[in-house]
Amino acid sequence: MAEERAEFAVTRMVRLLGVGRSRFYAWLRRRSEPSAGDERMGRLVADVKASHEASDGTYGAPRVLADLREAGWAVSRKTVAKAMRRAGVEGISPRTFHPPTTAAGPNPDPAPDMVGRRFDMGAKDLAWFSDITYLETGEGWAYLCVVRDGHTRRVLGRAVADHMRADLVVDALRQAAALRGELPEKVIFHADRGVQFTSAQLAELSRAIGVLRSMGKTGVCWDNAQAESFWSTLKTEYYERHVFATVAQARRGVYVWIDSFYNARRRHSKIGYVSPLTYERRLLERAETN
After folding, report:
1. How many CB atoms lie within 10 A of CB 234?
2. How far apart are alpha carbons 91 and 75 in whole angstroms?
3. CA-based angle 141:175:120, to the nearest 5?
4. Strands 155-161, 187-191: pairing kind
5. I need a labelling partner for 194 at 20 to 30 A (CA). Which of 18, 201, 224, 238 fits?
């Protein structure tokens, strides 16, 4: 009847079909009004879009779900995935990445592997991890070194330069030590056996600030897998989506992404889908109440 209203009068159709006119119009109203479920899905889709946009278009269903639950939604991951499909958004999946930046060199001050692929030792400042990756710019290659806490996943030190000398690692490690202040005990500083990490310059700084150098095997990327994982996130979620005209522009962009997004807001699956800074704050709060 609803489809035939353009051709036939409603009065005639209800008489011929033996249907009450009021019942037909009541059905028509119900069909045109959204159900409670439709309204809830509409609100969910809007909040899903907001979460996805706030992540610069990188979050998939697990991290969007964490955002929604923190905002008070009682919803499942499957429902969030359905809402994302309706919203026409999807997360970014990291791709396998193997940075060609490790060049072995003479090792005047060798160090053992004190990690043994146990990257999270159960508390912050027990093990830090470091590595170098490349950044392409209009001025040529730039190189980024980071120092990251193995437990909280926070980037403690970062340095970008147009070279891969030991100074690059020294700058990042000094920054990490300055950020943490007085360390409760000797921290393991783990890296690969690249020439920058085996240098006498870095060995001297490590002794001065009280960190114990640790190195994986030459050419075995799994021995520093946590650093490789960070590069995958950085490259997929930020670097490959931008173009940098200069080394200075790359430096500013990477620093902002690390400080303002990765450390402060990006939810990390290994620490309960909260950001590294939120996780460290919760650790401090628990320590103060004990």
Report:
1. 22
2. 18
3. 95
4. unpaired
5. 238
Identify the residue whose tokens are 């700084």: 205
* Two structure tokens written together for 271: 């620490």
Q: Give tens-digit pLDDT for 212-262.
A: 999 876 555 667 788 888 999 999 999 999 999 999 999 999 999 999 999
Question: What is the pLDDT at residue 110?
Answer: 67
Q: What is the DSSP string of 130-161?
A: EEEEEEEETTEEEEEEEEEETTT--EEEEEEE
Single-letter amino acid code for the residue at 253:
G
In the numeric block, which tokens belong to residue 41?
């899905």
Closest to 127 measured CA to CA, from 187, 172, 179, 173: 187
Over its C-alpha atoms, the chain yields an Rg (Å, rounded) of 28
- Torsion, Cα of 11, 12, 15, 18 (10° steps): -100
Alpha helices in the chain (DSSP H): 10-17, 21-32, 36-54, 61-70, 77-87, 166-180, 200-209, 225-237, 247-256, 276-289
Burial (CB count within 10 angstroms: exposed 0-12, middle 13-18, buried 19+), residue 48: buried
- The token duo for 54 is 């706030």
| Cβ within 8 Å of residue 17, ≥6 positions away | 1
Q: What confidence tens digit (pLDDT) does each residue in 185-207 have?
A: 789 999 988 889 989 999 999 99
